Protein 1
Amino acid sequence: MSLLLTLLLLWNPPPFERITIADGLSQNMVNHVIQDQRGFIWFATKDGLNRFDGYGFRVYRNMPGDSSTLSGNYVTGIWEDARGIMWIVTNGGGLNRFDPITEVFTRIPARTEDGALLDMEFASQIVGKDSTILISTRNEGLVEYHIHQNRFSKVRMDDSGRDVHVSGMAISSRGDIWGNSTTEVFVLDRTRSRVVRYPLIGRDQQPTNLYLLNDSVAVAPTRTGINRFELRNGTLNLVRTAVTGISLGYSSMLVPIPGSDELWMTSMEGLYRYNPGTDRLAREFPIDTRPTTALLMDTSGILWIGTAGWGIIKYNPALQHFNTGEGNLLAWVYPDLLARVGAVDQVDLDERGAEFHAVHVASDGALWMANIGFKLYRFDRNTGVLASLPVGRGLTRKALNRRFNRIAEDPKGSIWLATAGGVYRYDEPRGRLEYHAIYPGAEVDAEYYNPTGGPDITAMHFDRNGVLWLGTPDRGIARYQPEDRALTWIRHSVHDANTLSSNHVLDISADPHQPDAFLWVGTDGGGLNRLSMQDHSSRRYYITDGLPNMVVYGIMADDTGQLWMSTNNGLSRFNPATGTFRNFTWSDGLHSNEFNRNEFLKRPDGTLYFGGLNGHTWFHPAAIRENGHIPRIRITDFLLYNKPVDLSMWEMLRREDGTALELDHAQNMFTIEFAALEYTASDRNRYRYKMEGFDQDWIESGYNRTATYTNLSPGAYTFRVLASNNDGVWNEVGLAVPVVIHPPFWMTTWFRTLAVLAALGITGFLYRRRIGQMEAEKRRLEEISRLLIEREEEERQRIAREMHDSLGQELLVMKQWVGKWGKTRPDDPHRSNYEELSGHISGILKSVRDITHNLRPPELDRIGVTETVRYMLEEGCASSGITTEIEFDEIDAHVSADHAIHILRIFQELLTNAIRHGKAGHIHTSMSLGDEAITIRFKDDGVGFDPQRPDARAGLGLSGISERIRFLQGTFTVHTAPGQGVEVVMSFPKQSSI
């Protein structure tokens, strides 16, 4: 048992975080710690200079043969000037100037004004002010470097020429140098060029460090106490020694505590709060008797303690609002009660492995506790009386071996207890238990096993109406009305997202703002549920909503109405009004991240207790304050195609002054790494970023702090990143880095301009060539068309001649012979046939003459084109029953013989269309002679047509008319629509008929 307790005590974590070489630190011997102006933490170690961003280390070491690297790896001190330049002193390598933008080290030769080389082999400390740096060395004493003059000088304490090794030093606001050695404390008055000393006697008076409270007062820890020195009227006096009884003198460090008169101080035995006014010294925590070598409080109030071989101790005082303890939670809260109950039961209830017992603070202030074997205790905290209450009357031995799982109180003040299969109401006057079965078929004397193998009733809650809400491990929630024993089951359904998220219920708690409307339900694996007491619908909260874990053991409301929950991954504070979670883990000061079921209670003063693995955590919610420190954001790495870039590109990113990161087109796949330099809980800092010009919205990256872009097009972008600290306080301004991706030469403006000009030239050439080809083709087609029409007219004339001279003559001769036969043979029985045949031949002869006339009207040559067209229109309309209106000017003198035939053919085509297709009843046509042109109008009142139909113009002969108008070098338009007739207007230049 004692071994188990020892192991459990060792498991209880200290209130600080250790950072060692296992975490990336280059060496566990840390000599100095500073925070630079950009927010990074720097550690001087025995093996290099370390820069820390909260996630990892960047180590700078000496590289043999490279003078731009650190001069030596044993770094003993760091100081940053107002420009952000860092000055690093090394043991054996002297002084280095380091530019964090270019990451170039410049080694400063330790030569005096007269050229003498100083021995910097054992340089140990460095402090600075304005343009002056002081370095403590073992062989040269105190050395001063003048930055602007770039020269060294030795600081003389007296005229003896001896060099004093200074173990602690500081510079006052007036520029005076305070220091101490093994033999004295001194002040070098620079304005008066004199040294004021206080001699030290014995080892107990020898400090290894000192701290200036102001320009006239310093404190210096020693082996036995803390000495206070004051400079008054030109003399230095030891005015007080605070005897502490502990060893403080080995490399004790001091820094002020913001907002108070106290100092943080380290020693061999731990971290202390020291009040110089009262000399009160209070230990914050032990440090395992390890020597401390450096101390820093950063801008967010975190302490960084360097040790001699033990790495770094990181301690955040603001997080120490959680208190922890070992052992049983009840033994911690009610030690006297538990001891008395244990004495009665002969059980060591303080043992951590013992079961947690059901407890309840009643409305009258009495404390009820149940124990194994149906034992119930009532403790009156006012009188101190512990009553063991009789509850076993009438119960069998089997029932008496059971235990009470939970205790609750109904609105009437009756005590109810959960047990196997159901609940009991305790009848205190009669000392009896009244059993109410909850599980079907469960009886008080029967063994009942549920699938989980755990208690049958896991949670109990009475609402203000006296309804009992019971959690179970396998059936969800039982809503039970004790008066009529009405029971309603509320269960999880895989088909309905509005039901409970799990049937394994661990706790039920009333909503602090609406206790008659909602219950909060913690489950095993199903997260948190808000259950409606009216319709039993459930709103679920999971890890995706901010819950730290899907197992919620206990739920308690604090005095402000926020819910605190214990889980398998720390504590969570939930705001029901906003639906937001704030999670706390071991790094915030909890005893562990893992808690247990049933182990939670609230004291009347509002203090909350949660028990879990290897101990318990207790706190007052009002003391838990948010981290309001806004994090600074810095670029920490940049990779091209997953490889680090060279220093020149690094410089652009570190400068952070608006200088653009310029990349060529082949460097368009890169990764930017960034960090929020807020160290409270770096792993819980959150990020969002966007590349303006590429990303439409912010990308919520959560805890991930890298952004990768692939195949970005050439152009100008701005990469922006925002970050929050562990409590969700955001740096809304963030960091902006301009990014320019230069295009390849073929995408540049000058190249595109040349390409456009060349393309325009080529296009113009090709266009002109094509136009020429098209015009030649057009001329060729026109010539072909002209030749075809000419051949057509020639063929018409030939056919007309052939029909007139041959067929017509043959028919005329045949008619004459037939007529002659009929006259010479009057008695011939076929005489009537001869006469009929003669009539047919006459008809054929007329048709031949008509065809011959149409092929080449002889009127064209006899009476001219004007009258020929008039005659043709009148005859054609008369034969078709169409009325006509003709208005013609005499045009014969202004058209050639070739054009006359085209004009005739155009009118023939228009008349044919009006009769055959247009179904016209009236035609109006005109032919007018102008100064330069002849205009023809032809309009019918027929059915018209849709000019958008692809076949309309071809089917009506308009293409032929178009060809003939083109030969006349004229134009024509057609106006028509279905049901509106057709109007054709043509115009062509006048010509001579000769």
Note: The radius of gyration is 55 Å.
Protein 2
Amino acid sequence: MSNKQSTLKDTAIIIGSLGLAYMTCGASAPLTLIASSTAGRIGAGAIGRQLDKWEMEKILGNWQRKDLNHDLQKALIAAIEQTFDHLKARYYSRQVAWYRWSHRYKVNAFFKRLKKEIGGELDNRANVRASEENIRQLLQDKEVADIIPDLLQEFCNRAKVYSPKLADILAKNLEKKIPFYFKEVLKNKDYEKAYKAFELASLKAIEKKIDEIDEKLDQSLKHHETTHGKLDQIIDNQPQSIPPLLTNNAPPLPKYFLGRENDLKNISKHLQKEKNLLLLNGIGGVGKSTAAAAYWDIHKTQYDHMAWVMVPDGEGEAESKLQRAFLEFSPIASSLNIPDSLVETPKRWRAVLNALHNLEGNNLLVLDNANDTAVLRYIQQHLNFPNFTKIITSRNQLTNFPSYRIEVLPMDKAKALFIKHYPQAATQDQLLTKLLTAIERHTLAIELLAKNLAAARSYTLEMLYEDLHKKGILQIKNRKIDTPYQKQNNIEPTAIIKAMFDIQPLSEDEQWLLLQFAVLPPIFISYKNIFTFLQITSEQEADFENTLNDLIKKGWLEENTDKDYQLHPIIQAVIKEKIPPTYENCQLLVHVLANKLNKCVTNNPLDGAKYVPYATSLVENIAEEDTNIATLANNLSLRYGDLGDLQKALLFQNKALKIYEKIYDKHHPSLATSYNNLSSIYQALGDLQKALNFQNKALKIDEKIYDKNHPYLATSYNNLSGIYQDLGDLQKALNYQNKTIDIEEKIYDKHHPSLATSYNNLSLIYKDLGDLQKALNFQNKANDIYENVLEDTHPLRATSYNNLSLIYKDLGDLQKALNFQNKANDIYENVLEDTHPLRATSYNNLSLIYKDLGDLQKALNFQNKANDIYEKIYDKHHPSLAGSYINLASIYLDMEKLALAKEYIDKAVGIYQYKFPNGHPHLTNALGWQEHITEQYNQQ
């Protein structure tokens, strides 16, 4: 690397302050008896506590533009403030796990928007051109023609300095959202001149857009007519084919593959003899994975589907390791067409296992690096896929597991491999024999030593032998080896790699880059990801690629044909021992991944899931107690919560909290954030007392450090309200929700989505209290805001319609209940996957309404649709299943099908007895229904 340029690690741009994320707090009320269904309690928009209205003032500061029209400037800044609130709330409220635009919706919505936009502009065309004379007169003032774009650009530039993430949102959305708020602001008579200026700029923009649309209108409409129907047909009829390669991460064959011909023949024979199951056993780095890859390459035409899965080392239960291997380290779930709505880890894991078990054809699965005996036992007991040949590579062995041992290379093949990488050794047979004997012909060691020799200009085989001798490596076979996977051998490959690290020192950049790979998972990582994770600039790219290529030539790093890179697990271990990972030498990865995990909450959680394995490995590899590591652990906890892995969410949140409690004083806001997140996890786990304790700890800090109208206080009060509602203490839930609203009504405008959320939650509390008129009033207030600021197909609007439907049902107005539930159902069916739980909720509620209307067949049809979804996505003890079973029991009871009614009520009681203690209202109500139905059944 040129001395004129700073090193890669020194010029790395550190991303700004890591935003602590607040976990979703509002839990949906559980499905109870027939009279009620799941109502949509909504979280308080608690994600991203660090960005709020009071901090907006920091961005705006004393910013003035004296050259601009003063009225317009004031009006626009006021509108920007309101728009900022709206966008921020939307940005953080869309962290909900179920939000996803399906492909079908995208296509249909595109054409709908296009048609609406064109029609709207044509409607305005006559008015615009009729005003041309007025426009010309206003233009003579030559004021504000470009004011709005300039002002927006300056605002975005200043926002970028404060928060790059916020600037991205603003740049994409701000200009589209301002007109709504601007028009509200401009109604003030003080802004009359500003209104005329804005009207002029708007008319000008519309006229220009009309001219552009005129030119393409015919072509666009023709395209719409010919394409729209075809796209629908294609989408409807597209088969969900499963690709032959379920994963694309099989390791490449080495440039020189020598000495394994007999091994490959024996592997084929063993697989035929042992019913398509074989464990390839051997010491680390001897070539087990390479032998499996060679079998993969030679026999790939024999298999219909193939998958290569890398199993992580380290601590953890066997099932957890395999879940990470299948769900985080490989794209196998997507290849098997597992729907994105199955976000939660347990559901996704079961879906993958079922899909593999039912996959037809002749298939191959390689499970690489399965070194834990518990993992081997789990594979033997649970991964019994009938149509798969399974090859497992491991440094360990297991009794009764068909195995074949990969030994070190014979001397002639070891020599040939060494000479292929370092041809000069061909003339030094005696010395080469001595060296290979000393290192016991270990494959990884041969390649690393030979490649390093080839890359060194003035370093010889004699020098290498002498240096290894001085290091004591050549006497290694006289030493006792303690490594558990190498008890049958005298060789310790890590000692050879450590020696080579010292003998042929790597450059500072090479060592730094190897460390970055060492703290990431031992899987092939794409060039694009490495480039992004390390924030390589265009000026650095050439030097970065040179460093990568040098490490590949020296044998430290592997590269495949797709420009993906991998560090061998043994080399990873050596690098981490030679260069202990710390926050300082891994800070780029820490900051980038923390922001990636924090940023992904706006979208489908699976968009953020791709960063989870990298962040998990990084947190596990850095033992240092640093606040930045705590922030990364916090954000990782949130993403595991999105994925439904609450135990891992709890693990990483506790790690974050441990660091915060050690470093910060007891009233630090980061502690409040961590307590809040732990509260949310425990609430999701059903441990409401712990949830309450942690939320109270968060509230205690918030009340001490913030003023009484701070939005963080509103968030804590909202969360406490949700916990008390789950506990059944509705009066406390009501008190805390009112405290939330008292704050929000002071700090937000009347159309703020956070207010809508609080009105929604307050409505649900009044519904539970039986005050249906108040419930209706507050739900209407929430609905008015949602309809004012959200798109027609936004899921929160569907949630509001769902809640209105439930209230009208309880009020006895079944027609209005049906109308609102159908509106909710239309949105859910447009934007959610077929197996999404909210679609099941909507079908469930339609079933209840039709039952009250007396149409039992429709009620049964919709309840069965709901039940089918619940049984696909939930485990057998999930409370939503119990609620669905109760509703089915009630319908069958009215149909006088008592045997079926008894079957389903017994199922429901069994679930509630498993989940809840005696005396819980859900269990008590279910037992009452069971007694009633059983009595009817026995009397028939």
Note: The mean pLDDT is 76.
Protein 3
Amino acid sequence: MIDLKILCFNGFELNINNTLITRFYSQKAKALLIYLAVEANQRHDRSFLAGLLWPDFSESRARRNLSQTLTALRKDILDENKDAPIILSTSKTIEFKNQSNFYIDVQILNSNINFIKNHQHSHPHQCAICQQYLIENANVYKGPFLNHFEGDISPEFENWILAKQEYFSQQAIEVLIQLSKIYEVQREFDKALSINQQLLELAPWLESAHRFRMILLAKKGQRIQALNQYSLLSDILMEELGVSPSEETNLIYDQIADGKIKAANGNAQNTTNFTVSQPKLNIPFQAPALTPYFVERKNHFNKIKELLDKTDTTLQPISLVGMGGAGKTTFAIQQAHALKDQFPDGVLWGNTYTSSLLNILEVWAKAYGYDFSELTDLESKATAVRNMMVNKKALVIIDNVDQAEDIRSLLPGHGKSVVIFTTRNKEVALALNANTIHLKEFTPGNSKSLLINILGSSRVNEHPSELESADQICRLLNHLPLAVELAAQKLKARPQMPLASLAVRLQDAQKRLSLKVSDQAIRSSIEVSWQDLADISKQYFIIIAIFQGRPFSTKAFSHIAGIDLFDAEDELYALSSLSLIYEQENNRYQQHLLIADFALEKLMSNESLHELTKTRFINWYFEYVKKDGKEYSRYNLEWDNIRSAIAYAFELKQFEKCIEFCLFLTPAWQAKGLYAESRNAYHYGLNATKALEDLQNKCQILFNLGSSWLEQNDYSNAKPHLEESLNIFYHLEDTQGIASSFLQLAKIEIEQNQLNDATDLLNKSEEIIQIESDQEILANIYLQQGVIAYVQNVQSKAEQLFNQSLNAYRMKGLEVGQIESLRLLAHVQLNKNNFSLAEDFIHQANNICEQINNKPQLASNLYTLTAVYLRQKKFHSAIETGLECIDILTRTGQKRTKGMVSREISDAYAKIEEYDNALQFGQKSETIFDELHDELGVAFAQRQIGDVYKATNQMDFALQFWQSSYAIAQKLSNQTLISSLDDRINNLNLEQE
């Protein structure tokens, strides 16, 4: 049986049988050991551990890495006794068994904390047993958890470290506070000052600790030192937090200066309470304004407070479940305002019905000064926001959740933030394992309180019959908050109307409706409010239904309703005063979903008005997208309405408009990376071209559709659309379209290393386009031909073609083409070992990038510069530049370049003998190329991984990866790679002989 000692505070240290272990199979092996040991005696799912350590890899690849790392870890810690293993594992789980011969400082500290918390004693500062445990903890905690834990570890594991660091730091502060109080009570002031010094080193901003030190020094008779401590505190607070000492501290200073706190010659004075002073920050508060009329639900509020008071480090989401109209959103708004002081990092709000998940995440990021706009896929943006939130304690409220998948990307993950979401579907709450609070209809008392809040008590109480009618109205409306609010606003708008009259009308309305009780109550209330509108206001009200509950601008409503802007503002104000619509920020309005459903039924029953409204809706948004076409940011609030306009255009058989929408919006979709959005619209466009038998636009939309798939490296979907567009371009004898299609198809073949097929396609494109003399397409052809020559190692031809493309791009003033040509020229010079010339080309390319603010191209330039530094043996510069490149690539989604630069970084780390990092980046490269189905990229990555294993004397693994790479190289007939692998494998065999 081995003796194992693990220390995690102020760094990491592993001792086995009194021998310090400094070498691990990899950094991930060390991370795996730490996680299992800290979370000992718990079974951890293999899928979870794989995702924790290898989040960027496919699940199968991550699990393979986990198995391989676990095997190596057992060797590292001598855990090879199958009868009594330290780490228990099954096909599904892994568990670290904390036994008597193991010492783990984290578990010691936790155990002592739990003992002190549960120990029964008469006075916390006079318990000798607890004092011993506190002393042990003060000795155990030597600094931050895993301080300066370096190496390439996953963001998820880093987040876990950060959460643990903060938790243990707070525990250590509490330990030192309690221990210093004990020594003060015992009048051992020197010991109290020593512990206090530890506390100030850990938390120099803790004003109460400085104040306590002043008192201790005064009690020791060191009055001057006590007053000097005040000066030191003032400097720290002003420098760190920009504030002055509190009034409480000033009072202590005055008492010491006046001699009121003297040296202790008897019973010690009372101990001092400690509080943590925090700087006041500008924090986001995104919740809507409180409605002026609401009734508190104290039982539900107390339930939320009870959940928040739990000491769990991570609280499950809280779901507010209830039927439509039950007041879920209003209650959530109330919670946001009531609880905001408990969340120092603010309140975030999102509505999954009216905003896309991407847009919600982007708005949250900007609230904290982050810009993730370049992250165009949901997974990447969600990961970035989770990393942003890891150290924040915010209240996150998500409204109108219909499906569990709608919210998963918005959950902030591990940390102190709390999520509250509203839903009608209790199955959603179950799927997310949420703490569920059911919001039912109001109690009769609360229902009447809401009515009185809106109408005023004098009106309701002016006659017993009115009070009785108020009860009847609430009862008829089933005490549903929305229904009661609508009825009350109706009465408020007609001050002469008796409550009894409204009760009768509600009763009549309910008789006409054959709905469920809850729906009937709401519909009755809406119906009565609707009936009393003027005819023209009724029309405006149902016209708003065209937005189907989505937010809309006053200008959009003005156009669609066909009225003057000022009249539109008046009408919207009148409807909002009746709670039939709600005003938002930016001069926008929105209908409650239930009211929108009611209005839509009315609109659909009037076919001519319905069609007219749709037509005006289409026209408004058609002109909207045509105006200032390059100002794409202004679309952010309107994408959902634009999407509906395209669908309406197709529905009304306005096929020309449908097609034009697609063509106008293509640059915006490309610039914003909204590929899925564009493809949905293109399908409408394609069907429209079929209906019109419009081959010209059909092939253009097919071309755009294929190109959108190509941008995301989805070649299986890109190729058939581009091939179909090519066939139609041939039929139309559209030479420019034919050449462009050949060019795009050639890019696919190049990416898949089918160079002969790519060459044929480029030759065809060049032959066609030279007749047309289209310089832009010709420049693109030269560039791709140069890429093929470069890959085939015909460097002189590649250089000539890249210069041709550069000159053609310059003639046309095309900046991106110039950047690509300069970068590829730098690669040619790199192969010639002309490093200074290569750097010069990159600097020229970077200058253009800065002029046009093109970060994807900048990332590609940095990749090339990484390679230049690597060839010059400037390994640290290569790593630094490569990591900067990775940062940009992660935000822009350029997977291929990320795979290549990961391989270069791996090589640089290997050269400086940081093999765990080298292995990680080599594996990242392999995974990326595997996802892209790029066999050549996989082969080069595997060769690099084999090189790392060879350098660490793991010959079996090295041979395994080299042989796999060799098989691919033979399949692709890549002689350069075959030759390099032959040398490696032969040399390894000779060494082993």
Note: DSSP finds 45 helices and 15 strands in the chain.
